[in-house]
């Protein structure tokens, strides 16, 4: 938000000459999203293209920021709105809310980034007890006028006055029951008049005031309500989920109303220039006759496919197809379009670059390259590593025995299994208890957002691909099946009845397939994704039966590999993981954690080494460990032949290799009480007490362990050197690098390096093999980062251990804090995302950047990498590219994601706003 927190200063800002807070649709363009929001910028762009857009104006995000910071609208705003309203009235030939032929407007939110359903909209502003009569006379349709009026009171009451929306819905249901009808379009004018009276009573009782009859008061209050909705709970939750900055504010669009609820020759719809679920070209969307726009996205009435509009109104259909082609060619991307037909006349209400599934994103990007609309660099901006990760999730096994109970619209792909829940509160509660859940609703609304986030998937019995559930699920990458009409959802009794009479109670397991729309009872087994099979080498993209999606992924990955500067390595501790990482495209191993090699049967040897009282005991343990270590490294160097392998010397917190002190104490106490021999246990307990640490993560580990236990690190260096010599003798190409962990001062590194160089020289002399083993260190302590220039004098490479660096910079114990208070920090907005998931650029990141700069100032050829799990995080990869690292290293499964993001980071093409 604006840094200006002083109301007086904020008010002055609104009166500064030259500051403009309101833009007519004819004044803006699509590049002004920061100022006009996405909706306003695109309405202006369509106006500029000569498309049929109802006249209107946009109040800027800057006005919203002033209001949110100060609690007051800018001083100049009211006069600017009045001037633009007067111009709109002159253009339309009628005044807002006049009694004979009223001008009506909508007031709609429009932030820079699409936030479907998260902020507020009010339609039909300008209607009152008097003007509704004029609207009925002008339209020649009394039912239409009263329907529009009841919608205004309902929206205004809920959005502006804070009335519980369920009260209006209950009154509407009662009106339908009294009339013995099932849909609101069957209510007649007299019924709607009664409903208006009932709605006004609800407003009076719940809001403590009458519904405002002054049209300008309606509009002004609605504008403030839209501003306020930026900080509504659901909007803040959505922004946290989608990582949208909280300081952008929303624009407000005031648009002259056009009506889709004027009868069978009117209607409203949503269209996509390509299928947002698959990416295929064709006619995709939903249309609803005799309805206003909110009816479609709310999913409260089932729509017809857009293709049926051709038989309903061919003229409007043909015009819409032409406009869709114009917009896609103009925006060079999938466009999401809202439109209304008023008595046979088509109006465009919105367009935006449409949200899409992960699979659709990859297909569309390659299609647009083939059409010559975008180049490879731009194609990389149209996909994300997060989307690629979604495509690597398993899918349902088509060969499994299943019990299908329904089928809806495949709105957002994926294979989701979980326990049925019927409200968002339960979804969140059960999810926090570790349960996987499927949220089942008749239709979702913005208040269901927290439940949608918590659920594995979403199932609705109403709505289509453009409903709230579908749009939000696609944006979040959640599996979603919509419009499964054969399923009877009873949210009050918390159950769902399927064809044949079977009842799914809350807590029963169900499975939904967002790729086919199928719904199954019980848990359906899953199989690997074809994208994973491709990365594993089990599916060739050029094969005749290759999955179309695999071909698109293959091409995008080729684009990324050609563009990227960052190399991508793997965190792998054994040959099996190394081989898999290599198939996934790893260009080496950036972190081999040798402590993982000593678990299981070998743990006792390390325990003996640590607890050794005499040199003979220590030498005996080392002698047994050496051949085991050498065998590990021979296998690893063989799997990664020709590629670098960075081996981190032993870095366990000491307690991981010592007997549990409590368990050992109990054994000794029991032996003493039974007067049994226990000399060995007592000796061991005394040693464990001597070495016991209150905080092992900050104790005797890493380089400290190597300095305190003679021979430990030299044994490992010898094993590495001998393994490399053996591989060379076998005509291999080992490229080992030795990494010293937890260094805090250059003196530690110098001592270990001197010993390591001596061992390597001994192995070279003994084997007659020349060995080039780079020696470097892990930068994982703040002091190491701050003294990186000195440490670089003794290091040939740095690898940033951002997991530990994050812990030591923040003073967090990761194992404790994530479960204790991170949830509260995320909910309060202290964190936008966990600093263990995405690198904290301001704190940890600044140390990484400073250390990289200082290290290279000392040693220009210093190799720089990162081996914490941040190396596979999409946003973090971009940061590491910017600060000049040479490579990132991550777990094998995340290698494709890191490759893609490294390519995206290197691409300088426009298009960074695509989400």
UniProtKB/TrEMBL annotation:
Signal peptide: none annotated. It catalyses: pyruvate + phosphate + ATP = phosphoenolpyruvate + AMP + diphosphate + H(+). Coiled coil: none annotated. It is an enzyme of class 2 (transferase). InterPro entries: ATP_grasp_subdomain_1, PEP-util_enz_mobile_dom, PEP_util_AS, PEP_util_C, Phosphohistidine_dom_sf, PPDK_AMP/ATP-bd, Pyruvate_phosphate_dikinase, Pyrv/PenolPyrv_kinase-like_dom. SUPFAM superfamilies: Glutathione synthetase ATP-binding domain-like, Phosphoenolpyruvate/pyruvate domain, Phosphohistidine domain. PANTHER family: PHOSPHOENOLPYRUVATE DIKINASE-RELATED, PYRUVATE, PHOSPHATE DIKINASE 1, CHLOROPLASTIC. This is Pyruvate, phosphate dikinase. It comes from Streptomyces pharetrae CZA14. The lineage of its organism: Bacteria, Bacillati, Actinomycetota, Actinomycetes, Kitasatosporales.
């Amino acid at each position: 938000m604006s840094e200006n927190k002083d109301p007086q200063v904020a008010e002055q800002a609104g009166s500064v000459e030259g500051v403009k807070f309101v833009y007519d649709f004819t004044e803006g363009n699509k590049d002004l999203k920061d100022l006009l929001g996405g909706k306003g910028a695109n309405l202006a762009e369509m106006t500029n293209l000569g498309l049929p857009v109802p006249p209107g104006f946009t109040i800027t995000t800057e006005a919203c920021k002033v209001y949110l910071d100060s609690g007051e609208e800018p001083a100049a705003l009211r006069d600017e709105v009045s001037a633009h309203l007067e111009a709109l009235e002159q253009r339309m030939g009628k005044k807002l809310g006049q009694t004979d032929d009223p001008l009506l407007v909508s007031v709609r939110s429009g932030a820079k980034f699409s936030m479907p359903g998260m902020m507020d909209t009010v339609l039909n502003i300008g209607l009152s007890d008097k003007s509704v009569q004029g609207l009925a006379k002008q339209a020649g349709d009394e039912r239409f006028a009263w329907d529009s009026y009841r919608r205004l009171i309902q929206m205004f009451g809920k959005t502006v006055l804070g009335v519980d929306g369920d009260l209006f819905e209950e009154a509407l249901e009662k009106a339908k029951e009294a009339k013995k009808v099932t849909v609101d379009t069957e209510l007649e004018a007299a019924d709607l008049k009664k409903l208006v009276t009932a709605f006004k009573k609800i407003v009076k009782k719940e809001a403590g005031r009458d519904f405002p009859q002054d049209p300008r008061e309606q509009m002004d209050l609605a504008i403030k309500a839209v501003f306020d909705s930026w900080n509504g709970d659901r909007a803040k939750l959505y922004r946290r989920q989608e990582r949208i900055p909280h300081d952008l504010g929303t624009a407000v669009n005031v648009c002259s109303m056009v009506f889709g609820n004027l009868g069978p020759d009117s209607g409203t719809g949503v269209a996509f220039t390509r299928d947002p679920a698959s990416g295929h070209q064709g006619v995709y969307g939903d249309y609803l006759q005799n309805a206003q726009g909110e009816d479609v996205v709310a999913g409260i009435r089932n729509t017809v496919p857009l293709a049926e509009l051709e038989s309903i109104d061919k003229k409007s259909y043909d015009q819409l197809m032409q406009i869709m082609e114009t917009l896609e060619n103009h925006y060079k991307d999938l466009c999401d379009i809202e439109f209304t037909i008023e008595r046979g006349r088509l109006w465009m209400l919105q367009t935006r670059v449409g949200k899409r599934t992960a699979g659709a994103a990859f297909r569309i990007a390659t299609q647009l390259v083939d059409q010559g609309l975008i180049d490879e660099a731009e194609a990389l901006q149209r996909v994300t590593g997060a989307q690629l990760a979604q495509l690597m999730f398993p899918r349902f096994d088509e060969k499994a025995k299943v019990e299908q109970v329904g089928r809806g619209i495949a709105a957002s792909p994926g294979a989701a299994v979980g326990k049925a829940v019927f409200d968002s509160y339960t979804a969140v509660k059960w999810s926090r208890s570790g349960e996987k859940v499927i949220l089942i609703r008749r239709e979702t609304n913005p208040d269901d957002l927290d439940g949608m986030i918590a659920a594995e998937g979403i199932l609705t019995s109403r709505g289509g691909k453009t409903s709230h559930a579908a749009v939000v699920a696609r944006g979040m990458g959640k599996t979603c099946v919509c419009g499964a009409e054969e399923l009877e959802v009873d949210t009050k009794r918390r159950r769902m009845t399927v064809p044949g009479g079977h009842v799914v109670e809350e807590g029963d397991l169900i499975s939904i397939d967002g790729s086919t729309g199928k719904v199954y009872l019980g848990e359906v087994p899953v199989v690997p994704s074809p994208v994973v099979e491709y990365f594993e080498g089990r599916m060739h993209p050029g094969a005749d039966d290759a999955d179309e999606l695999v071909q698109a992924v293959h091409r995008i990955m080729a684009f990324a590999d050609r563009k990227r500067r960052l190399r991508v390595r793997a965190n792998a501790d054994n040959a099996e993981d190394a081989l898999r990482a290599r198939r996934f495209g790893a260009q080496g191993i950036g972190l081999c954690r040798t402590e993982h090699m000593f678990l299981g049967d070998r743990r006792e040897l390390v325990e003996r080494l640590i607890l050794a009282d005499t040199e003979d005991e220590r030498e005996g343990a080392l002698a047994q460990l050496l051949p085991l270590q050498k065998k590990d490294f021979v296998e690893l160097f063989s799997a990664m032949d020709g590629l670098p392998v960075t081996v981190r010397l032993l870095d366990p917190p000491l307690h991981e290799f010592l007997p549990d002190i409590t368990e050992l104490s109990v054994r000794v106490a029991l032996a003493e009480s039974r007067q049994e021999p226990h000399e060995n246990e007592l000796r061991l307990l005394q040693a464990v007490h001597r070495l016991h640490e209150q905080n092992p993560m900050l104790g005797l580990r890493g380089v400290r362990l190597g300095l305190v236990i003679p021979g430990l690190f030299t044994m490992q260096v010898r094993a590495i050197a001998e393994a490399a010599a053996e591989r060379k003798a076998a005509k291999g190409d080992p490229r080992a690098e030795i990494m010293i962990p937890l260094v805090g001062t250059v003196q530690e590194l110098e001592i270990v390096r001197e010993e390591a160089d001596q061992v390597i020289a001994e192995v070279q002399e003994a084997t007659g093999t020349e060995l080039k083993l780079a020696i470097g260190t892990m930068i994982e302590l703040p002091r190491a980062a701050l003294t990186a220039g000195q440490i670089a004098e003794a290091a040939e490479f740095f690898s940033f251990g951002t997991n530990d660096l994050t812990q030591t910079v923040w003073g967090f114990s990761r194992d404790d804090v994530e479960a204790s208070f991170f949830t509260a920090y995320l909910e309060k907005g202290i964190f936008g995302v966990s600093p263990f998931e995405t690198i904290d650029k301001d704190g940890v990141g600044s140390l990484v950047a400073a250390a990289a700069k200082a290290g290279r100032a000392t040693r220009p050829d210093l190799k720089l990498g990162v081996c914490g799990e941040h190396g596979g995080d999409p946003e973090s990869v971009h940061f590491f590219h910017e600060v000049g690292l040479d490579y990132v290293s991550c777990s094998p499964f995340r290698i494709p994601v890191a490759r893609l993001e490294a390519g995206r980071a290197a691409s300088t093409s426009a298009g960074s706003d695509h989400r």
